Fold:
Amino acid sequence: MQGRSSRRLSQYPDRASSSLVIHTVVVGTHRTTIRLEPQMWDALKDIARRRRLTMHDLVTSIADARSASTLTAAIRVYIVDFYRAAASAEAQPRVIQPPVIRM
Structure:
């Protein structure tokens, strides 16, 4: 992946270095490239692992459920929603069962 980035910089010397990482994924049966920050790729891989899905299946489900936004934007929103839901579930007070008193 490093070669692709340096090649792009040499083609466009006036462009600043981008922090986005490009990956090719299959959405359904269509190959497409997606540019995301490395942290977003890490989060997407983590979510796929937790849900026991391949990256391609996860991205396909995100693409199928998205509205008019771009796929990249839909992925970012999905990641935020996933971790927000996880954080709010952890923040819920846990119900502590009263001890059983035996007589």
